[in-house]
Amino acid sequence: MSFDLNNLLRENIKNLVPYSSARDEFKGEASVYLDANENSYGSPLPEPYNRYPDPLQALVKEKLSKIKGVPPRNIFVGNGSDEAIDILFRAFCRPGTDNVIIVPPTYGMYEVSANINDVRLKRVKLTEDYQLDLEGIAEAIDPNTRLIFICSPNNPTGNSINREDIETVIANFDGIVVIDEAYINYSRQKTFIRELTEYANLVVIQTLSKAWGLAGLRVGMAFASEEIIEVFNKVKPPYNMNDASQRLASKALDNIEQVNHWIREAVTAREKVARELTAFPFVLKVYPSDANFILVKTTDAKEIYQHLVKSGIIVRDRSKIALCEGSLRITIGTPAENEQLIKALATFNNG
Questions:
Q1: Is residue 35 included in any domain, yes or no?
Q2: Per-residue pLDDT tens for 150-203?
Q3: Which residue(s) pair with 251 in the sheet?
Q4: What pTM did the predictor assign?
Q5: What is the three-class DSSP state of 171?
C-alpha cells in the first residue's frame, strides 16, 4: 500500500501555526529569565516549580532513547498515553466524516476518544481465541478509514496478538496503524518499535504507568516516524507535561534494574496465581496472559466480585464486555496480596 502522511492530515492541521512559547523561542541557559511572566520569587514548595517546564521533555527523551533504542526525534512524551491517542484523532480524523477501526474487546479509551471527536467507530471483534479477524478488518476498511488500533498485549484479555497478523494489517493499510503496548514489558513478544524504520504508517504507544510503576505521574509515549512526531508536537499543548513529572520520570528511568526485577517477579507470580485459580470449581478458564493481569472466566463473575469486595479485595468485572462474558480481570499483586486473593476465593461457595 502507498502511505502518504499529507493525504491523512486534516487541512486545518496542515495549516496550523502552533503556539510559540517562551521556552520555544529561547533555548539554552541564562542567569535572568524575564520572558515568560513567571513568578520570579519562587514557589511555596521545597522544589522550585515557578518556571515553565521543558516543552519537549529533552532529558526524558534522551533517557528513553537509550532504553528503547530510537532517536529522541522519534519520541513523543505526553500526559499519559491517552494524550497520544487523543492527538491521533484530532490530527488525522475529520469529525463527522472519517472513521477508525478497533478490535474489541479492547482498551476503552479508543471508543471514548472517537466519541469526543465525533469520529465514527467501526468494531471488528477478535476471534474466539482473541486474535485478529483479518478478513473482517479488510472488509471494514473504506476510503475514510484513518486509524486502526491494536492493543498487544491486549486489555482486558491479556494475550499478545499474533505478530504476523499485525504486520499484515500494517502492510495492507494506507492509514495509520496504532499498536498500544502498555503491557509490553511483561510479554514474550518483542516491541514493534524496532519496525518503525520499515513501516512509515506505524505508531507504537507505551506508558510508564505499568511496569515502571509511575501511574500517578501520567507519563505516556508514542514512537513513530519523525514526520508523525512533528505532527504530535504541533498539536499538543505547549507545556503538556509538568515539571514534577519530568523530573521524577527522569530519575526513575535510571533505575531500570529495579524495574526489570519487578517484571520478573510479576511474571513468576502471574504463573503461580494462574495455576492456583484453576483449582477452584467456579473457575472455568484462566486465559493465557502476557500482561500483569489475568482474565478469568467464572460461573458467576458478579457474585465472586461481590464476595471479594466484602473481603476488601477489588478486581475488575469484565463480564458485560463482548467475548468476556462471565470473566473477571485480576491484576497481579504482591505475594501477600495474591495470597489474600486465593484465601478469599477459597471461602466462596456458589452452591
A1: no
A2: 999 999 999 999 999 999 999 999 999 999 999 999 999 999 999 999 999 999
A3: none
A4: 0.96
A5: helix
Contacts of range 137-143, beta carbons closer than 8 Å, 24 or more positions apart: 137/101, 137/103, 137/169, 138/172, 140/101, 141/101, 141/173, 141/175, 142/99
Residue 223, domain CATH: 3.40.640.10
Domain ranges, residue 328: 257-346
Domain match, 242 and 317 both: no
> Are 134 and 173 within one domain?
yes
Q: Among all chains, which residue has been given the C-alpha cell 491484576?
A: 331
Asked which of 254, 272, 289 is the last residue of a domain, the reply is 254
| CA-angle at 158, arms to 155 and 160, nearest 5° | 100
Nearest to 326 by CA among 300, 289, 293: 300
136 and 246 share a domain? Answer: yes
Which of 239, 254, 269 corresponds to the end of one domain? Answer: 254
Q: Are residues 134 and 149 in the same domain?
A: yes
pLDDT digits (tens, 9 = 90+) for 24-50: 888 888 899 989 999 999 999 999 999
Indicate the length of the chain as a whole number: 351
C-beta separation of 344 from 337 below 8 A: no
Q: Give the separation between CA 343 and CA 350, rounded to whole angstroms.
A: 16
Judged against a pLDDT cut of 80, whether residue 2 lies above it is answered with no
Residue 225 to residue 197: CA distance in whole angstroms: 8
